[in-house]
Every structure is written in structure tokens, then in C-alpha cells.
Amino acid sequence: MTTTAPGAAEQGPAGRGPADPGDGPPAAPDGTPAPDGAPPEGAARTRTGDVPPGSSPWQLARRELRRRPAVRISLCVVLLFVLMAVTAPWLGALGGWSPEEFDKSAVDPYLGGLPLGSFGGISPEHWLGVEPVTGRDLFARVVHGAQVSLLIAFAATAIVVVTGTAAGIAAGYFGGRTDAVLSRLMDLTMSFPSLIFMIAMLSVAKDVNRIVLMTAVIGVFGWPGIARVVRGQTLSLKHREYVDAARVGGASSWRILTRDILPGVAGPVIAYTTLLIPGMISTEAALSYLGVGVRPPTPSWGQMIAESVAFYETDPMYFVIPSVFLFLAVLAFTLLGDALRDILDPRGGRT
Fold it and tell me: What is the pTM of this model?
């Protein structure tokens, strides 16, 4: 009879110490040994973090939001700014002041109209202080400025995305003369010095709605970028097997474009859209800063920063508050856009 030395049952092959789980085939969760070379169910997904095949872009985005703390924080800041813009009239009323209401008792007429109190006049009556000389409440002006900035940014982005996506799909799918005409139009639009042209147009137009005009002007010059991206994606999709099968099956061009091509370019378009918004916010602020954007008494972050330059030494809070709001809005949208680009358009993110 063969005897076993004490502790031998605990030794792995060739005396390597305790048996290593990797020495034999891993067992499935129900205890059944897995086939040789086959990892247990769910192991690869847990190790690599992959999602099931066929996941939609929104499922990928939701999973990424759960995985990255920085993205969750950015999304919360974005939602906070959107909520602030939507509820601006109620927030202003909650603070007790309208953005155009003067409070002469909050400024010192003997010191050039500087706010009374420390930190720009921050008090229970004025939560973020007051504007020098006029005494207008900064909290009311900041939240209404968020409404103006985000309204222009979202509306201009919608114009850019719809126009650029339609032009890019048409150029890539139909090709030939359609592609040549649309491509030349993209080149012509991109060749314009857009900022100078915006300043000139906004300076000449006097008696018009400035918000509508800024939205239209910004949107006109922004669509060629996304059109080029969509055109390239469409060129790679229009010869796929499922598109050829739909074409052979007698599907119309409209059905192929809306059912087969458009879902294929949705990921890059969503990623590009989120990266457009911070640029639109910055453009609106820059135009208002230069004096050709939103005009007083309508509040705007860029306009407030421009007016605060004259008081940056005597009342720095007047400069800091709108600048911080503008910085946080642009940063939050940029971080969220970068994350969505990495998820929905990984090849575009690497390039």
C-alpha cells in the first residue's frame, strides 16, 4: 500500500507548493469543470470590461458614466447648468432681484459706485454680490446669462449637426456630382475667416434680434466640420453587405439612408455634438465680450466679463464670478464630450 507523506495532498505538481488554481481547467459557477482552454462564463467580460455584443451607443455611454467618476461629475455639472438656464426666471425671483433691477443702496456713491461690504457686496440680500455703479444683482445676471449662453450654444449646435449630417450623408452616399458640389461648398465655407465675418455681420445688423442672429451666424459657419466626418463614415458604410442587400432588395435611397446609414454614423455625430457645445459657448462669450453679441440690458457672461475689466483692481469678484461660471461650463462640456468620443468613436479619438 502506498502511503502519502504528510502535507503531500496540499502540494501542486513538481512540489511547487499549494495547488494553483491555474493548474487545472477552471470550474464553472455550478461546479462543473470547464473545457480545456475555455475560461469560465463571464471571466473575459469581467477582466476586460467589455459589454455584450450589439450594445447601443446609449448603453455604452451609460456604462462609461458608471465607470468614470470624472465623467459623472462633468455630467452633474452640465445638468446643473442646464437646470439653472431652464429655471432662470424662478431662480432670479427666488433671489429677490431681476437682472435689470438697480439697487443704489448696495453701492457707495462716494467711492465711484463700488459695492458696499466685502467680496463685492456678497450678503443675504445679494448672494453673489452686486455690479459696481448700478448695484444690479450678480446672481440674477449670472443665471440669466447662463440661459442666453446655453440657448445660443444649443440652438447653433442643432443647426450645425442637422445641416452637417444631411450634407455629409448626401455627399458620401450619392457621390459623383453631388459629392463634388457639396465638397466644394464645404471648402468654400471653411475658407472664410469666420470670426471676422461674424463680427462684421453682427456689427452691421442693428435692429434685429441679437440672439436669433448670433445663432444663425454661428450655425452657418460650423456645419462643414461635421459634414466631413459624416461623409467619411458614409463612404465606409455604403458598400457594407447589409446596405448592398437592402439596395438589391429594392429599398429606396431614403429608406437606406434613414434605416442603414444614419444609425451607423450616429456614434461619431453624438460625440462630435458634445464637443461642439463648449466651442459654441466660447464663441458667444467672445462675441459678447467684443461688443457685437448680446447687448445690454440682456445679460451674458462674455458681456459681464467685458464690463468687469474696468473694475478688476477695485472689485475683483465682479470679474471672477462670471469667469468661473464660463470656465466650469466649458470644462464640463469638454470633459463629457471627450469621454463620449472615446466611447462612441474610438478610432476618431485615437487620431
Answer: 0.76
